[in-house]
Amino acid sequence: MKTTMICSLAFLLIVPGILSGGSNVADDNLVLLPIKNDPTISFRIWIKVGSQNDPPGKEGLAEIVSSMLTNAATEKNSYERILEKLYPLAASYNATMNVEMTVIYGRTHRDNLKEFYPLLIDAILAPAFKQEDLDRIKSQALNYLENTLRYASDEELGKAVLYNELFSGTPYGHITSGTIEGVKSISLDDVKGFYRKFYTRENVVIGLGGGFEKALVNELKRDLGKLAAGKVELVPKSVPRTGNGFTITLVEKDAQSTAISMGFPIKVLRGSKDWYALAIANSWLGEHRNSSSHLYQVIREERGLNYGDYSYIEHYPRGGQLQLPPQNVARRQQIFEIWIRPVPNETRHFALRAALREYQELVEKGMSKGDFELTKGFLKKYVLNYAQNTMERLGYALDDRFYGIKGSHLELFRSMMAKLTLEDVNKAIKKHWQYGSMQIAIVTKDAQSFRDALLSDARSPINYATAKSDHVMKEDKEIINFPIPVKPENIRIVPVTDLLVK
Amino acid sequence: MAGSIFPYKAHTEVLSNGLKIVVIPMESPGLVSYYSVVRTGSRDEVEPGKSGFAHFFEHMMFRGTKKYTGPERDSIITSIGASGNAYTSDDITAYYYNFAKEDLEKVVELESDRFQNLFYSEQVFQTEAGAVYGEYRKNITSPFALLNEKMKDLAYDVHTYKHTTIGFEADIKAMPQGFEYSKSFFSRFYRPENIVLVIAGDVEPGKTMTMIRKYYDSWQRGYVPPKMTPEPPQKGERTGEVAYPGRTLPILNIAYKGDAFDPKNGEFVAALLLGELAFGENSDLNKKLFLKEQKVQFISPSFPMNRDQGLFQVFSMVKKAEDITYVRDEVYRTLEEFKSKPIEEKRLSDLKRRNKYGFLMGLDTPSRVTGGLARFVALTGGIEAVDELYAAFELVTPEGILKAAQKYFTPERRSVLVLKGAQQ
């Protein structure tokens, strides 16, 4: 007995340094952004997991798990108690997640750090995983899929259909909210198993920004080091089907107007020269929520068909709510996307043609010198707006880590605007964009008649309430006959009630 | 100002034509946020058939002047990489740009030009009406947009809060015919006495004011206030049902006539806190209905600050139609409790602390400062109301909350709507 005691004491004397060092989150997995004068502290705790890790049949699990950490009880506190404690601090924590990343983020005034920090840490380390919390969170997720997404916003629905179709059959092939059957089937054991597998010490990156003290960094490393050990295998990259011509999904719905989203996967990622070159072309074609977008000029400003028209070279969730790009939605396989906001049903064919025609012209002719110079100048300054506060800057810093960018993407963005030439841009267009193969998702009424019109490539004349300029009238003559070659087997009609089921 | 909650020093000046300018220097690496707050919104749409016009007009403000046509203006904004937009609501139309400080003079020039010299053809005017109709169509698929439209219509009889900011669909369809009216709208409302500039970020007040005077001094007065018809006191409860063509869980919307924004009105200030205490995230009712019983997808208050008498509202999405009455009665029961039993001091002080930190943490970028102040500016014409309101919050007592509950939450002031989706 005595001997054993001595042995363990000796063990304790020698080992603690190694043990505590070994169980900390590694310094490599720290992203720090100290800003002395900032009276607040921003946390972004990145777990390398996302909807691509959802097991087949359990689509939606990654998102549910993140919610079970941030919107539910911990071992120490009921969820009600957590809300009570956070309340006077005006601080909160939440999760944002996408195909590859889950980030638990929170922000507090430094006066309130002592009260906020233990709540945040408990949420990550000691979730209670109670059945009543799971019931509530599943019910919200199902309501979103069954009602909100299908009926409350046709443009969000169109995008969801596009994302699901683009990567169908791969781990990227379902939206983060999952499917109705997937969510229904999720049990507490699924949640616990997923958490144990992915929320590990080696799979976490600590992002910390603002007016924090050094001691907080050590505390975080030590505390998150208490997560279970475990290396996580990266899901093989999702490889989508490409090169199948125009493939169209028509969602049949009793809709007043028609929402259109279309695109294809692209390989280019931020950090590479081509990405910045393509960013110039894309900004000219369709800068998000900006009147400088050429598609916007053609479809909205000149013709008044809808509220806006944009394009993207990175996945851009919540586009309807955001003015500037979101952070922490990074992914290894990106998409090119064109978003046509709802147009009157009678102009749907025309609007689709108008957008494709502009895109085709850009792909075939490239950018003009004048547009290139203007757009380059625009982006150089516009990106200043992308990360205005500590939380946003920290988000970008994590994304830089994801993409393996040494330094900062936003600085690189600005410096590339000075280096890139028109030739670089036009070469990048040719290399990464093609015309003729695209996935198109359309939410509309009387889909059958649209299918017929698309298959026969029928003219799509347009009537305006008012006179238009000669320039518009001339262009319209080309638009109404602009060919969209599509094979019958590549157009399918899906009733809205069949969507998002499994 | 001693005891001020607002953490930055603001410089306020009024030009001889009545234009007020608030300049707020703050730490911000090279960025400036520039807000033009027009103290006009859908509230000012007093003429019949003109609902939605303030918002429509906001769109027209991007269509250029004789000096800079719309495309020229777009191209200049593009060349300076400014991030900007505009929005309209009941009491405000706001235009903003966020940009690099070296471009301040260009923005001052462009903004002063369009506010004084807006010029567009009838053809352009009519095309823009199409974009506005597109905005309506994209919004109306939401059950909340439909509910908002119906609640305003139910709760008000004569005041312009009867219609939404986007307007009635029939009025939007008729917008292309409003070209002449649009000129009168501009001439009456887009005048210096009715507009306040709020400029925050990496700016120096002296130099900024020199630029402002250079470009805005020549602007002529001429604001014509709309002839508002006050809403007569409501006499008795109103109820209704709304049929939503898509699928949704039922939504319960209970609204009470409140008061116009006035930080000196202790009952109004107390009511703003009451909304949070009774129906906010940390309220007993939220914990009961959302967390414990799980009968609702959410319950939440909307107690806005309005220039005229606004609505204190509670929204709840109920999981089962048969529970709507139960949830409604729980809301009433909660309000009765607030009328009869003073709230614990601790809950009130927690809320005051939350408000203070929430406000401070929200002011971390120039655009959040200007954006946060814009509503106060629209309601009162200046930013002093911010300090007044937060000072008034500090003075609210449990008895004050009780009195506010007794004043506002009576059946006579109440309107109730239930929205239901199409049968599954």
Q: Would you give an account of this structure?
A:
The complex is a heterodimer of chains A (502) and B (424). Chain A has 502 residues and is an alpha/beta fold. Helix content of chain A is 44%, strand content 16%. Chain A has 19 helices and 11 strands. The longest helix of chain A has 22 residues, at 131-152. The N and C termini of chain A lie far apart (60 Å). With 424 residues, chain B is of the alpha+beta class. Chain B has 2 domains: 11-216, Metalloenzyme, LuxS/M16 peptidase-like (Cytochrome Bc1 Complex, Chain A, domain 1, 2-Layer Sandwich), CATH 3.30.830; 238-420, Cytochrome Bc1 Complex, Chain A, domain 1, CATH 3.30.830. Helix content of chain B is 44%, strand content 17%. Chain B contains 15 helices and 11 strands. Chain B has helices at 53-60, 70-79, 104-117, 122-140, 143-155, 169-173, 179-189, 205-216, 266-279, 284-292, 324-340, 345-361, 366-380, 384-395, 398-408, and strands at 11-14, 20-25, 31-38, 83-88, 93-100, 195-201, 238-243, 251-257, 296-302, 311-318, 414-420. In chain B, a hairpin with an 8-residue loop joins strand 9 and strand 10. The longest helix of chain B has 19 residues, at 122-140. The chains are: A alpha/beta (502), B alpha+beta (424). Chains A and B meet through helix 4, helix 6, helix 12, strand 9 and helix 14 of A and helix 2, strand 5, helix 4, helix 10 and helix 12 of B.
Q: Secondary structure elements and their pairing?
A:
The complex is a heterodimer of chains A (502) and B (424).
Chain A: H1 2-14, H2 16-22, E1 30-34, E2 40-47, H3 61-70, H4 79-86, E3 92-97, E4 102-109, H5 113-125, H6 131-152, H7 154-166, H8 180-184, H9 188-198, E5 204-210, H10 214-224, E6 246-252, E7 257-266, H11 273-286, H12 294-301, E8 309-312, E9 334-344, H13 348-365, H14 369-382, H15 390-403, H16 409-419, H17 422-432, E10 438-444, H18 447-455, H19 470-479, E11 491-495
Parallel strand pairs in A: 1-5, 6-10, 6-11
Antiparallel strand pairs in A: 2-4, 2-5, 3-4, 7-9, 7-10, 8-9
Helix pairs in contact in A: 3-9, 6-7, 11-14, 11-17, 12-13, 14-16
Chain B: E1 11-14, E2 20-25, E3 31-38, H1 53-60, H2 70-79, E4 83-88, E5 93-100, H3 104-117, H4 122-140, H5 143-155, H6 169-173, H7 179-189, E6 195-201, H8 205-216, E7 238-243, E8 251-257, H9 266-279, H10 284-292, E9 296-302, E10 311-318, H11 324-340, H12 345-361, H13 366-380, H14 384-395, H15 398-408, E11 414-420
Parallel strand pairs in B: 2-6, 7-11
Antiparallel strand pairs in B: 1-2, 3-5, 3-6, 4-5, 8-10, 8-11, 9-10
